[in-house]
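Homework help board

Subject: predicted structure for assignment chain

Our instructor gave us this sequence and asked us to write out the predicted structure in token form, then describe one feature. I got the tokens but I'm not sure how to describe them. Can anyone check?
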Amino acid sequence: MRPLPAGRPRAAAALLLLAPLLPLASACGGHDDAHYRVPARAVRDDESPLPYREATDGRIAFAAIGLSSGLTTITGSHADLPSRLGGFARVRMIAENRYATFHKIDLDRQLLVTSRGAYPPDVNAMRVKRQPTDIELGSHDRIEFDLMYDIPKDARIRALRLYSSPTDDLGVPLQHDPGAELPLR
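My token output:
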């Protein structure tokens, strides 16, 4: 191989070597800087990841990110709990408060819609797994939590019907909470 002559041909050769890296450089900057870079986490045992979809009720955004079903017994730090109806379903949730004030959400109102009807969270399962029955989110805060349901073994999971008790801009509760439906399959 012959050495390159001095001057501009060397600069051209350097550009040719760096050209494949230019798309990577542009991907690292620009509008993506306006997003948080949150590291990916492993899915928990017996859990399937769900595609990210949001449903909003008022200014509370909900997303289900993981689903486990057919759990015949759940174990916590202080108890084992067998299913009374056939199997537990665990839904990993994100709730984001887009209000400018605190907002309290009653998790006991969140219904799992199945082919056999709609079911509220199982209070005992929530306690065994040490999950809250209500949450209070600060202004523009986000939280993750699990909802635990005891459902018949042959029930096919379809969706969540979510309620946030929406308010107006002054924090006054709206008269009718229509809820929001979030598909799970």
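Reply (TA_rk): Your tokens look well-formed. For the description, you could write something like this. The helical segments are 8-18, 22-27, 123-128. That's the kind of observation they're looking for.
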